[in-house]
Amino acid sequence: AGEPFVVVDEISVARQIAEQRENQIRSRTLAKIVPKVSFEDFQRRLAEGSLAGADTGIVQLNLIIRADVRGSIEAIQKELEKLEHPEVRIKILQASVGGITVGDVTLAHASDAVIIGFNVIPDEAARTLADEKGVEIRRYDVIYKVTDDIKALLEGRLKPEEQQVELGQAIVKQVFQISRVGSVAGCYVVRGTIERGCRIRVFRDGRLVGDYELESLRREKEDVREVSRGFECGIKLAGFNDVKKDDMLEAYKIVEVARKL
User: Whole-structure pTM over 0.90, yes or no?
Assistant: First the structure.
């Protein structure tokens, strides 16, 4: 069905009606083809990898910025530039002075963008359209809160970095051959601690023999979580039965460290 026919006397009124109809048609069209977007949507899709470019694998967050004065915009842009990272990218689609309008919401809806309002508010029409389309409008009055929000969002989705943490060393004093178990090293901890679940590098005459998982850690016939410097313990390595007297066992563990932008 077509639009209703309206007779008007004033050219300005006619132009206003035409613009309203154009916006309505544009909104109906976008509603059919464009998904909703919010910080929560971005987090979910970021975790799924659906925001990464097919070729580059870089995740992009689109922003539209509205602020009270040009100086605020420049300050926000300057801070956001500091969040550059090879795996994530922030793209500012539009940055302008003034309140948040229907045009901003329409652009955000069409481009999967989040609207940032700094010391400004959306007009009633923009607020209504944003609610209808699921476009998120984030309002701030302190610049660092803008960057803190976006930084935390992106950092939380960067793949953690693995780091080795050195735990301690133990010297093999005696080797026990136990039926159906294999070689168990009777050790003396000379530095730090040996912890359950760690990995062990075996050194012989100063040369690395291998790197193995700690299968069991015992002290006085009891399974223990850790053994500290100055104490003796029994160590069984997974998949390695060639441990010898005077071997040096170096314990370490792998930890995941959150990465920063």
Answer: no
